[in-house]
From TrEMBL:
<dbReference type="InterPro" id="IPR039422">
    <property type="entry name" value="MarR/SlyA-like"/>
</dbReference>
<dbReference type="GO" id="GO:0006950">
    <property type="term" value="P:response to stress"/>
</dbReference>
<dbReference type="InterPro" id="IPR036390">
    <property type="entry name" value="WH_DNA-bd_sf"/>
</dbReference>
<dbReference type="Pfam" id="PF12802">
    <property type="entry name" value="MarR_2"/>
</dbReference>
<dbReference type="InterPro" id="IPR011991">
    <property type="entry name" value="ArsR-like_HTH"/>
</dbReference>
<dbReference type="GO" id="GO:0003700">
    <property type="term" value="F:DNA-binding transcription factor activity"/>
</dbReference>
<dbReference type="InterPro" id="IPR000835">
    <property type="entry name" value="HTH_MarR-typ"/>
</dbReference>
<protein>
    <submittedName>
        <fullName>HTH-type transcriptional regulator MhqR</fullName>
    </submittedName>
</protein>
<dbReference type="InterPro" id="IPR036388">
    <property type="entry name" value="WH-like_DNA-bd_sf"/>
</dbReference>
<feature type="domain" description="HTH marR-type">
    <location>
        <begin position="8"/>
        <end position="144"/>
    </location>
</feature>
Length: 158
């Protein structure tokens, strides 16, 4: 019985270490991508947010990132100056300003992700559909845990 508990403890410790290694690798990769694009980390991850979720208002960016409104305003200004985003009036409500990616400008940076995407596809090929379901569940649930922890740190816990 204690050997099962010992094994679980070892696995949990290994998961903790691997999670930290994964987090560090992700941060360093995105820092390198951002540097090649001439962007800071927050700018690069905001572009990623817009890529995943589509056009957003500055207020929606604040809500999703936990950044202060003034910080988001400056962030969007920088991204716009660098040609990565544009502000447009909301068609349904002209008072709302939407921030959207300039797809033509961003497309030129797709090659920066090519080797990483190819490597992930090769990695995924080694798993069964059932294993991929478990991995997907873990990633979604661990992202939710991290988002909740971020919300507590930024005072935006939900």
């Amino acid at each position: 019985m204690s050997s099962d508990a010992d094994r679980r403890g070892e696995l949990l410790a290994a998961l903790h270490r691997a999670g930290r290694e994964h987090s560090n690798a992700a941060v360093m990769f995105h820092a390198a991508v951002g540097a090649r694009m001439g962007l800071g980390m927050t700018e690069e991850k905001t572009l990623d947010l817009l890529e995943r979720e589509g056009p957003l208002t500055s207020g929606e960016i604040v809500a999703r990132t936990g950044l202060a409104p003034a910080s988001v305003s400056g962030l969007v200004d920088r991204l716009e100056r660098k040609g990565f985003v544009r502000r447009t009036r909301d068609q349904a409500d002209g008072r709302r300003v939407i921030v959207e990616i300039d797809r033509d400008h961003v497309a030129s940076f797709g090659a920066l992700f090519a080797d990483f995407v190819t490597g992930l596809e090769a990695l995924y090929a080694g798993y069964t559909e059932e294993q991929l379901d478990v991995i997907l569940d873990f990633l979604r649930r661990s992202a939710a845990v991290q988002q909740q922890a971020t919300g507590k740190l930024t005072g935006q816990a939900g």
